[in-house]
Amino acid sequence: MRKALIAIVVVFVASLGLVNAQEAKAPKIGYTNANYIFSISPKAKEIESEIRSRSMVLRKELEKKQEEFRTKLDDYEKTKNSMMEAIRRSKENELRNLEQNLMELQQGAETEIKNKTDELIAPESDRIQKAIKDVAAENGFTCLLYTSDAADE
């Protein structure tokens, strides 16, 4: 009986030690919002300005091509009834080609802006992620939860 009582006490004391050890190793949780950090970084305004500038240049090019297409289309509409069949078909082909080129230019501009945005944001995003990890390690955080603003979702 005495041995059983000693065994129970030893198990109880050991379990108290395990509970204390688990409490000492409880995770330290940190919260961060990388989007917010990026939005207040000095580099964010530079990136936004550069993207806006390139977008304006591409938009002007696109508007110029759209105006050229509209002018040629209007000219065609005004004179199509008096054209010979071969000339009318030639103008229609030219208009189709212009329209196709216009669509390709628009898609190319969208792709260029996306690629430029990714290219400019990546280094700043990497810098922010490294800073978050450094601060987490420095402060002993074992778990980081990334949050976002409700407006970002």
Radius of gyration: 33 Å
What strand order characterises the main sheet? 1-2
The secondary-structure element order is HEHHHE
Mean of residue pLDDT?
84
Quick one: biggest sheet? 2 strands, parallel
End-to-end distance: 65 Å
Strand content: 5-15%
Please provide the count of β strands. 2
Based on secondary structure, the structural category is mainly alpha
Output the number of helix runs: 4
Oligomeric grouping of the chains = single chain
Helix content: over 70%
Please supply descriptive tags for the structure shown above:
153 residues; mainly alpha; two-stranded parallel ribbon; 2 strands; 80% helix; 5% strand; rod-shaped
Written account of the structure:
The chain has four helices and two strands. Mean pLDDT is 84; it is low at 9-14 and 18-22. Helix 3 (42-79) packs antiparallel against helix 4 (85-138). It is mainly α and 153 residues long. A two-stranded parallel sheet has the order 1-2. It has helices spanning 2-24, 34-40, 42-79, 85-138; strands at residues 29-32, 143-146.
Describe the structure in brief.
The protein is mainly alpha-helical and 153 residues long. The chain is built from four helices and two strands, in the order αβαααβ.
